[in-house]
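[job 4471] stage=fold_predict status=RUNNING
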Amino acid sequence: MKDTIQALEEALQNEKRAREKAEELLLHRTSELLELREALKVKTREYDMFFDNILDAFIVINPSTGNVIKMNDAAVKLFGYDIRKEPFNLVNIIYKDDFAYAMNSFAQLIQDGTFPNYEARVYTKDKQVKWVQVNSSLIYNEEGQIIGAQGIVRDITESKENTVNFEEQREQLAAIVDNSTLGIVLAQDRKIIKTNKAFQQLIQYNEEELLGLPIESLSFEDGHEKSRGFYKQMVDKEIDHYSLQERYRRKDGTSFLSKTNVTGVRDGKGKIKYQLAFVEDITAKHKRRVMLDTLNNLTRSFIGKLTIHDIAWEIANVAAHDLEFEDCVVYLANKEEKVLEQIAAYGAKVDENKQIVNKIYIPFGKGIVGHVAETGKPELIQDTSKDNRYVVDDKRRSSEIAVPIIINDEVIGVIDSENSSKNFFTKEHLRLLVNVANLVSIQLTNANNLERRIAAESENKELLENLKRSNKELRDFAHIVSHDLKSPLRSINALISWFQEDYEHVLDAEAVETFDKLNNKLEQMDALIDGILRYSSVNDKNILAIHKVNIEEVLEEIKTILYIPEHIQFIYPDNLPTINADKTRIKQLFQNLISNAINYIDKEEGKIEVKFTELKTYWKFSISDNGVGISEAYHDKIFKIFETLDKKGKSTGIGLSIVKKIIELYNGTISLESKEGKGTTFFFKLKKIIWS
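[job 4471] inference complete, writing structure tokens
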């Protein structure tokens, strides 16, 4: 019994100790639980703060239904929905064209637990379409069951649009590059890394053949030093772009002249990363410029040349040199003997003494040159081996061009050139030589006209000398008349006056009348002497015979007097005024200025134009030409008598001084504007004369 009680007491003590230990453990667990609960509250608050304040939209959805169960303010702002006010299902706002992709992505999320960088379009509450990027993951409970799906949603609409725009611009740029008529080359360290179709067609290499090639390997060496110098300046940051002319070598061995514009593309540190080159084929443009320069050079060289021989040598030397012809021969036609004689040459036909070697004579109708002389039509032969008219001169050549020189519908000569290459000459060469032949025709015609003008001026000079002598004699005579006749007239007048005074009381009425008549005759004689004296002075305004003068009629009369070459246009308005003036003086004024303009026009197409303006008290006229022009240093000198700019003696130097004197008779002024090589305009004003 005692043992039983003791056993029960021990059991009771054990139970008590166990309970106390359990209570102690429970108290400890309770304390830990309270601490965890507090920690959970803190974490929950932190999570809520993070959730609410995250800049990107953040949502939590029920993966079974798609209903949004939690969203932050950024999500409300993005989608326009607020679950605190109304339910919001994410599935319902998926863009129709992206729905299948969205469902597949969601299935991938369920399978993998995460789905990064999901991109699709959604509808907002106000029906806008926005691009979003979602990084999502699943939420599990302690048992590992899916209780939700969360995602950070970013609005990438602007980025997407920029990407689309960038792609469009990239495609547009690619289209521009691919379809550009300019060759485009992108190089790095002066080696090709990209070219466009235009450059490939220009150079006759494909893209694969060009990649990695040094850009200099495609051009001729004569331009390399200049190109390297520009590149060094670009590397040294002295320039960002440059332009130069280069000759490129094609794959087939031919070449073309290019204008190359190179721009340096720098990296963030300012170092040259790429070189972008635009290559333009200017071969044809260069040829046209050369031909135009040749024509201009010939035009200048013809000035002062008065014979066909002088002009022929200019053609042979200038044209052949500028156009890089192998040879050039000018033939002169002998109409009587019906043959063509070589009178000038360039190339192998000329020796060191500038003499034609083995000069030949070609009958009209023989060979290509003779055929051109006979028909008056130019010829362009691309392959002389196929033309049985071809005649060998110093050696056989493969192509030939021949152009007639025609004056007054008659062939006076032929310009001929041959080349050792077939198809060397072009239609542009033919057009140029036709223009040269026309220039020769005009120059020779002008030379003949000049000879006639020189003869006429010589005759005019002699007439002017005679007129000068006659005017002097007239002035001398007028002074003699004034002195020798007026003196006795005054004496007679005095005697009559004395006689009338002394015998007034004895003179009858008839005698008085007779003396009055005698006095009247003496006064008339005195007036006659004064008139002769006034007439002798061209500077006396009182001798001007004032009449109504139609300026258009004056110009029409001048046209019948002066020789105006066909290549000179003479232009004046149809409303020219009628003025009160001395017609002879006005005619002399216009004639001198127009004649002066004709003499100094050196252009292929000359122009003389008369204009006028009516001012309040003056008539203002201008006469302009497109002649050689006058240096500003001579603008004042040319109005002085016997002053001339013509050092060859073709001008008397009187015309403009006469013009100035006539204008001064009308209280007028004369001035000029001129530019050497461009032409001259004379402006003069004549004071209006009120006369009826």
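[job 4471] summary: The two ends are 181 Å apart (CA to CA).
[job 4471] exit 0
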